[in-house]
Each structure stands twice: as C-alpha cells, then as structure tokens.
C-alpha cells in the first residue's frame, strides 16, 4: 500500500517540516495491523516527494479467529483502505491537525501538492472518484488497474491508480484522503461506533457540510449505520433536520412534510389517544404539534441522535416551560431496534419517515419492538412512495429521495408489508395517501394506521 505526496513549493524540502519527518532518513512505525515506513525518494529545493508505505500483516489480522481462507486471501494488504487512514492519523498526527512547530505560517498556507495512491478501490468507479474529489478543487487523474485477462468473466476492475493535484493546505489534503479513501472502498476494518461520528466531523470540518455528496460520504464512512448517519447529518446541517433533507413542495405553499405531519396529527387525534410516542422524533416538529393539543396528556419523543434531541428540546422550549407543562413532555435517547420497557403502556405511536432509514434486515426486529413489545393500541406510520420519485424535478431515476434511505417502497410493497404485520400481530390496518395524487404514480407519501384488534374482533 503506497501513498506519495509531492510538492514544488520552494524550498520543496520544507515538506519535511510540515510532515514532521526528516527527509534525510527513513523511519518505521509499528501499527496494530503491521508497519508503516516513511521515506523521501526525491528531495531538492525545487521538488520533494514523501512516501508512506504500509506493510499489512494479513495473518495477524485474523489471529484468534476461525481459519477461513477468505480471511487470509484478500486485497487488504495491497489496496488503499481504512488501514491507510489509520496510518495517516498515527504517523502524520501533527500534519493532519494543521500544526507545524518550525513552519507554522507554511502549515496555514495553500501550496501546490500532488498525492498519488498506487491502488485504490472505488465501489462506484471513476465517476464516483471524481464526484468526491473534484468539488474539493482537485485535478483527478485515474488509470484503471487491469484484472488478469485470463479471467474475462471477472468484469471491469474497480481498482485504479490515482493522482490528486491541487493548491491546498497539507492538512486539508490529508483530511480529504483520510475520510474519502474508506468512502470509496465502502468498507472499514474496525468497529464503527459513536466515536467515528466525532472523527468524521473533526476531519470534515470546513468542507463536508457543503460537499454535494455529503450524504453519501457520511453514510459510507459510518458503514451504513443509519442512526450514526442521522446523528452526523444533524450536526453537519443543524439548521435543517436530516429527516427533512428530501423535502419538496408538491403543491405551492405547503411542504410535503407539513402535509405529512398534519395527516399524522389528525390520525392520532381520531384515535382518542392520551399518551403518545413519537419514535424517531428527530428535531421535534411533530412533538411541537402534539404539545399544542390539550387532549394529549403525555407526549414522549425517542431518537438515537443526541444532537437531534437537543434541538427538539430547544424547539419545544423545555427549559422555559412551567413545571406542570414540562412534565407532560419527555425526550428519550434510544433505538427502534431494541426492546425498551420505557415504550410500554402508550395509547399510540407515530413513526414518521423512519423505517426507510433502517437496514431491511432490521425491519423484523423493529416490528417486534413496536408491535409485539411496546404494543400501543394505535400506530401511525408513514414512508415515501418510490413510484412518485420520477415527478420530483432534479432527482435522478436511480436515486432514492434521501441520502440515508436504505430502501423505498412502491404502494404495492408497502401494502403487502403493512397487511402482513397487521395479521401477524393482531392489528387492523388502513392505508391512505399523503400529498397530491398522480393518476399513474400515486401520492408522494403513504400512511398506514394500525389499530389493535379487540378480543371480540380477533375471534
């Protein structure tokens, strides 16, 4: 695994000060997955090149695990991946932070830099590579790495040798590579938890929030973990909710999300519920509407994102409410895919544009958590209608409506799912459209209202 960084800034040998690595000698560093070596194959006042070489220990990576051949025979020792990102963070720590003891003014300046990565996998090909780096100001050169011609059925190689050239701060170049290499690979070699959100936000500061592929970058960097993705997007774009990124105005003056919330509110009022849950409450727009209705005696919002709950608390002005009104509203941190005793005993639950953020294989767990364990008398659930997407201007045919959506259902698919869930868990279900209906494509959103059957109805 090889990364080289070249500058023609003069004196070019100052690159050694920026990287905090002496050009006069080669250095080696022990990492948990192997070794990193830093050396300078070229050092003059006109041009200087630093090379980071990784030696991955494939046997050490799987030591103590079941001995399957695929664990040993893979591309990890040879292709740029999250291993490279970790090496950059550990070997070039000071440079990545943008600091230089000996050349602080140079560390803050944009200088001509060229980075070359010998073998980079891109799940999305050269087109995705360009979509990620060109908006950041890089000139991108990509040469495909050919597969063995003896195996024609392997198809087109996803491996490329790339060059990135720009006038940019060294710290920014390192941050872009640190974040985007694992995004292109669409994999990480370690567990992704809450701390990865902090790493993404720290290294994405100043560029990620405005990047046109922000949602894709966030989702892939966090290994498609929907809760972490939403938490990161909530903080990247605090002025707008991650749940509302896909909002359009299908009819003048009334946003789709407003129509959706009003439809859910009416369904909850019709149910006669007194104690209401908003599951995946986001930044509290539905909670705000519920709080204005005196018929709801207890209102609880649950979300995986701490940041979203903070925004919801601010939107509801919880710190300014009188004690009696404040006790009526609760905000809980939690997941929709884990049984939670705190969710039991409610009359109704709203799940607004949430399930499409879940991985499909997690849906059965969500169903049991809500319809079997929590078991409210009424569940009001909405999700996008995929058939309507062709009517949204500027939305490519093969793209989902929101960058964090894991799937979107047609009307027939949603109906089949809703009826199956209702039958399995003893509910009746009524489906209705939300928003203006097109004769061929239906409405932009679809709503299911589940009502728990009584014993008489069950028999």
Structural commentary:
It is a single chain. About 5% of the residues have low confidence. By secondary structure, the chain is an alpha/beta fold. The chain is elongated, with a radius of gyration of 26 Å. Helix 4 runs antiparallel to helix 8, helix 8 packs across helix 10 and helix 10 crosses helix 11. The chain is built from 18 helices and 14 strands. The chain has a 7-stranded antiparallel β-sheet with strand order 2-3-4-1-5-7-6. A 7-stranded mixed β-sheet has the order 10-9-8-11-12-14-13, sandwiched between helices.
Q: List the strand order in the largest sheet.
A: 2-3-4-1-5-7-6
What is the radius of gyration? 26 Å
Put simply, the count of helices is: 18
Unreliable segments (pLDDT under 50, ≥5 consecutive)? 64-70, 239-252
Q: What share of the residues does DSSP label as strand, in percent? A: 15-25%
Mean pLDDT across residues: 87
Oligomer: single chain
Question: Distance N terminus to C terminus?
Answer: 66 Å
Largest sheet: 7 strands, antiparallel
Outline type? elongated
- The number of E-state strands comes to 14
What level of helicity do the residues show? 25-40%
Secondary-structure class = alpha/beta
List the helices and strands and how they pair.
Layout: E1 2-7, H1 15-19, E2 27-31, E3 34-43, E4 48-56, H2 58-62, H3 69-72, H4 82-91, H5 93-97, H6 104-107, E5 111-121, H7 125-133, E6 139-144, E7 159-168, H8 170-185, H9 194-203, H10 214-221, H11 226-236, H12 256-271, E8 275-279, H13 285-291, E9 298-303, H14 306-316, H15 323-326, E10 329-333, E11 348-352, H16 363-374, E12 378-384, H17 411-425, E13 427-434, E14 445-452, H18 455-458
Parallel strand pairs: 8-9, 8-11, 9-10, 11-12
Antiparallel strand pairs: 1-4, 1-5, 2-3, 3-4, 5-7, 6-7, 12-14, 13-14
Helix pairs in contact: 4-8, 8-10, 9-11, 10-11
